Amino acid sequence: xxxxxxxxxxxxxxxxxxxxxxxxxxxxxxxxxxxxxxxxxxxxxxxxxxxxxxxxxxxxxxxxxxxxx
Length: 69
Hints:
The chain is of the alpha+beta class. The chain is built from two helices and four strands, in the order αββββα.
């Protein structure tokens, strides 16, 4: 009888832990940033920190000037 109670407790504990980890994954995905690649140097940077010109993305003003050459 004790073995059945222990088995049920372990299964319930695994279920609760799996539910907690699923909720924390949702929080992480909501705060993630989109990453873009610089056309000139290939550096990956967040969209917030990148410079967009038309359909091209650049990591700095220096890369924009090197692209014009």
